Automatic annotation (TrEMBL):
<feature type="domain" description="ABC transporter">
    <location>
        <begin position="13"/>
        <end position="91"/>
    </location>
</feature>
<keyword id="KW-0067">ATP-binding</keyword>
<keyword id="KW-0547">Nucleotide-binding</keyword>
<dbReference type="Pfam" id="PF00005">
    <property type="entry name" value="ABC_tran"/>
</dbReference>
<dbReference type="InterPro" id="IPR003439">
    <property type="entry name" value="ABC_transporter-like_ATP-bd"/>
</dbReference>
<dbReference type="GO" id="GO:0016887">
    <property type="term" value="F:ATP hydrolysis activity"/>
</dbReference>
<dbReference type="GO" id="GO:0005524">
    <property type="term" value="F:ATP binding"/>
</dbReference>
<dbReference type="InterPro" id="IPR027417">
    <property type="entry name" value="P-loop_NTPase"/>
</dbReference>
<protein>
    <submittedName>
        <fullName>ATP-binding cassette domain-containing protein</fullName>
    </submittedName>
</protein>
Length: 102
């Protein structure tokens, strides 16, 4: 967490190939959500490096990370934050409207 002297997560090396399925399991508070937030650029590193699809996320501005996420990453939050005036399919397809690639 910001201001903490202890690292939230310490992963010396993690390599996931495109299309690979990964299951992340652990007790509450072990860093699963933090890891996902880092991998998607929602949170930024305080030390170390992180590259996703050969892109150094730390070198991107917040808006560039948003664009990267829109173009390359599908993410469903723990709190769904669905738009009540859209149906389920429209909520699922909504992120595609922000991506030139999808």
């Amino acid at each position: 967490w910001p201001g903490s002297t202890n690292p939230t997560i310490h992963i010396p090396k993690l390599h996931i190939t495109q299309g690979e399925h990964v299951f992340i399991k652990g007790p509450s508070g072990c860093g699963k959500s933090t890891l996902l937030a880092l991998l998607t650029g929602i949170n930024t590193l305080t030390s170390g490096s992180l590259s996703v699809l050969d892109t150094d996320l730390a070198s991107l501005s917040a808006s560039q990370r948003d664009r990267f996420r829109a173009n390359h990453i599908g993410y469903i939050f723990q709190q769904f934050n669905l738009l009540p005036y859209l149906n389920v399919l429209e909520n699922v397809l909504l992120p595609c409207q922000f991506s030139k690639i999808r």
